[in-house]
Amino acid sequence: IAGFDPTGGAGIIADATVFRAFGFHPLTVLTSVAAQGAANVSEVLPLPKTFIAKELAIIASEFQPQAVKIGMLYSSDAVEATADYLNTQTLPVVLDPLVKSSSGGDLALPTAIPTIEELLIPHCTLVTPNLPEAEFFLGRKLTSLEMVKGAALQLSEKWQCGVLVKGGHLEGDPVDVLVYGGELNEFPHQRISMRTRIRGTGCSLSTAIAAGLAQGKNVSEAVESAITFIAKAIQNAYCSSRSNEVGFLGFEE
């Protein structure tokens, strides 16, 4: 359940690619269409609540999903339609709480933020904010690993679900911090040096976690396997844009 990025570097195309790499058939529900590239988000067109509800109704009537990944919702209409669907389901849900793109463009309307916390997060198994998103929801800067740990604990307590704060924006090698079931786990990993900026790592990580949960892994196992999966995809990254300044994750199906 996500938005459309015409470059395929993020959004629903990237999500579907990850699910296929894990051997799953992806079922895609579009919430919005973004005129988006590496440099900016020039416009986002939200789809009506009634249309999103029809997409979800088809999925519910014809398939039995094993897990749900939620990406860009953008509008409160999309949040409400998704929450209505989840009210009828019992399955793992991973939310990547997109607020802004890596280029700084808005990926959620201000009116959508309260509805995400009120209507959607109660259905979530795991929420996966990056550092700027965690700062946004907490209203303060996070400049150290200890602060990230505190943020993960606070958000998990606030939202009453698992939280993975992705530490890639901190200096040095990244440490992702997971709080689930009251337990805190750290997942340190080596920062991979690349000549280009890679798009879609956060989107794809949360999708890989959802795929791991669909395979029957517990949350910690799914997070660990997803981090390994994304690290390999970064190593296999490639450039296909004219500028060669932006790379895309390389997945092996």
Name the shape in a single word.
globular
CATH-scheme architecture: 3-Layer(aba) Sandwich
Which fold name is given in CATH as the topology? Answer: UDP-N-acetylmuramoyl-L-alanine:D-glutamate ligase
- Largest sheet, order of strands side by side? 4-5-6-7-8-9
Q: Which CATH class is shown?
A: Alpha Beta
C-alpha Rg, in Å? Answer: 17 Å
What's the total count of β strands? 12
CATH H level, superfamily name: Ribokinase
Question: Number of DSSP helices?
Answer: 8
Low-confidence stretches: none
Largest sheet: 6 strands, mixed
* Termini Cα gap: 21 Å
Average pLDDT for all residues = 89
Helix/strand structural class: alpha/beta
Helix content: 25-40%
Q: Strand percentage, roughly?
A: 15-25%
Count the domains: 1
H/E topology pattern: EHEEHEHEHEHHEEEEHHEE
Task: Write up what this structure looks like.
The model has no long low-confidence stretch (mean pLDDT 89). By secondary structure, the chain is an alpha/beta fold. The strands form three sheets. It has a six-stranded mixed sheet, sandwiched between helices. A three-stranded mixed sheet has the order 1-2-3. The chain has a single domain, classed as Ribokinase (UDP-N-acetylmuramoyl-L-alanine:D-glutamate ligase, 3-Layer(aba) Sandwich), CATH 3.40.1190.20.
